[in-house]
C-alpha cells in the first residue's frame, strides 16, 4: 500500500499545518496551502488524501473536491518522475505551445495526461503559468523553462534519461 492510499501527515507536518491554520480566522482559508503540502507529501491527491485534508481542516470533503478539481495544479493521479506541464493558454499557444505538447507526446509515445510506461514522464497541459513574457513555458517538476522549443525539450528528456531517472 502506498502513502497515497493510506495518507498520514507526520507530526512535523501537522505542526506546520496548525501554524498555517492559525494565520486565518477560519480553518477553511488554509485549504490551498494544506493541499500543496499534501500533494508534496503524497505525490498526488488521492481521495483518501483529500479526505485527510478535510478532516484536518474540519470541513466537508466536497469543499476540498471543489478546489482540487478546479485548479490544474492539483493532481488526482500519480504522475511520472518528471512532470512536464505545458502551458497552453493564449500567449503560449500563440508561440507554439500546442506544437510543443504534440512533439513531447509523440517523442514519448503518450497522450496528454498520460505517463510513460517506465514511470519517467508525464505530460500535461495547464492554464497560464504566470510567465507569459517567456512564452512558451513548460514547467519541469515545477521549474520554469521559458521560450522553449522542441530542441530544448529533447535535451531535457535526454538529460533526464541520462541521469537514470534521478529527479
Ligand atoms: S499564457 Fe503561458 S505563461 Fe501565461
General description of the model:
The chain has 167 residues and is an alpha+beta fold. The chain has 2 domains: 11-68; 82-162, Glutaredoxin (3-Layer(aba) Sandwich), CATH 3.40.30. Helix content is 43%, strand content 11%. It contains 7 helices and 4 strands; from the N terminus they run ααααβααβββα. It has helices spanning 11-21, 31-42, 47-57, 61-68, 90-94, 97-108, 150-162, and strands at 82-87, 121-126, 138-140, 143-145. Strands 2-1-3-4 form a 4-stranded mixed β-sheet, with helices on one face. The chain is elongated. Bound molecules: FE2/S2 (inorganic) cluster. FE2/S2 (inorganic) cluster is lined by residues 87, 89-92, 128-132, 135, 137.
Query: What's the CATH topology name of the largest domain?
Result: Glutaredoxin
Q: Which radius of gyration do the C-alpha atoms yield?
A: 17 Å
CATH architecture field of the largest domain: 3-Layer(aba) Sandwich
Task: Give the full name of the CATH homologous superfamily of the largest domain.
Answer: Glutaredoxin
Task: Give a quick summary of the entry.
The protein is α+β, with helices and mostly antiparallel strands.
Question: Which structural traits does this protein have?
Answer:
167 residues; alpha+beta; Glutaredoxin; four-stranded mixed beta sheet; 7 helices; 43% helix; binds FE2/S2 (inorganic) cluster
